[in-house]
Design goal:
Number of helices: 2
Order of helices and strands: HH
Shape: rod-shaped
Number of strands: 0
Radius of gyration: 57 Å
């Protein structure tokens, strides 16, 4: 009762071969092709992702370099403008100092002239002041 090679065995073997061939044509080959296409699609997406990630990194580093260059340029412009403003401010300060010195010198001359005039009239003014005080003192006793 073991397996005896009779006609049933050969028919079953033929039936299995036909079933396997049909299974291969209907299921295994299309599923294998679908898996290959899916794997190719996933690999393509992965490659695209890696390529885009590299492009993003390159763009970011380029943008960082441009920002750094722009900052340096802006700092240079600000430094030049600051230096120009300081120079212009110093020039305005010098002009204002000269004008102020002229005004101070004129005021000193005026004060000096008035002091000289007052000192020249010192006796006359002191006499007038003494008379005024005397008149007030005498006038208040009356």
């Amino acid at each position: 009762m073991f397996l005896l090679p009779d006609g049933t065995f050969w028919i079953q073997l033929l039936n299995f071969a036909i079933f396997f061939a049909l299974l291969n044509v209907v299921f295994l080959r299309p599923v294998g092709d679908a898996i290959k296409k899916r794997r190719a699609h996933i690999d393509g997406i992965q490659n695209d992702y890696e390529r885009y990630a590299a492009q993003i990194a390159a763009s970011r580093s380029e943008a960082d370099a441009k920002r750094a260059a722009a900052r340096r340029d802006a700092e240079d412009v600000v430094a030049k403008a600051k230096a120009a403003a300081e120079t212009e401010g110093a020039a305005h300060t010098a002009v204002a100092a000269e004008k102020a010195q002229v005004v101070v010198d004129a005021a000193r001359n005026t004060v000096s002239t008035e002091m000289t005039a007052a000192r020249g009239r010192e006796d006359e003014l002191s006499q007038a002041l003494a008379r005024t005080l005397l008149e007030r003192a005498i006038g208040s006793e009356r």
